[in-house]
Amino acid sequence: MIKEKFIKLKRMREGALIAYITGGDPNLKLTPLIADALINGGVDILEVGIPFSDPIADGPTIQSAVERALNAGATPKKILDLIGKIKKRHEDTPIVILTYYNIIYRLGLKKFFKLASLSGVNGVITADLPIEEAEKYRREAQKHYIDTIFLAAPSTPIERLRVIAQSSSGFLYLISTFGVTGVREKIQELTIKFIEKALSAVDGEIPLAVGFGISKPEHVKKILSLGVDGVIVGSKFVKLIEERAEEKLLEKMKKLAFELKKASKIGVFKVNRNGVE
Q: Is residue 274 one of the residues assigned to a domain?
């Protein structure tokens, strides 16, 4: 389903807007409503984080979201149940979960992927799982038609990039910069060079989506102009939840999603391996 979404967007000459939220933040009741607002605002793929007590890849904004969610009673099972509710309302929107391997290990691979499949999950990102230790994980995911999305960083050598791409399905998550998640003011030269390297290494075998630090329409335009297939925005949405005036939160989430999605449709995209101009 994720692959088909990228194909459809390519035909429409659009980049994919992937939005991240932490499941259960600020509470379990609001998560499905926030998802509605984002998808209705134009988000193409929804990424939902399962709260974990030691989110090593996340910066202060998402760490705070995780703390709020855990304090609100979020558990892996409850988040998967919420995703099931979201999926019933948005059948055509792929849903990806971001988690850490400890959560999967505690549930057990078979049980985790069975529950994920029953909830309508289309892909899983496990932030701390290297491809060398992911064989059984990938096999179990494939049994349930769930994509396994791996991450690559600017420091990843080109040969390893190729290996990670071959191990991934759905899309390859490119971490735009060193460090943890968080809002950043501008796109770094490091990010541009990394994208160029990834495009060369992958050569159209799998869609590429760039995350970490993307927060503005101009970021979206710039990143997509380099030839990738999608952008991932997380901390900017999570920051709105943190600042929430609840009566306006959903409206603000939808508005930001609309502005970011609009940026994915505008401009002349660089000719890339997919033939997009």
A: no
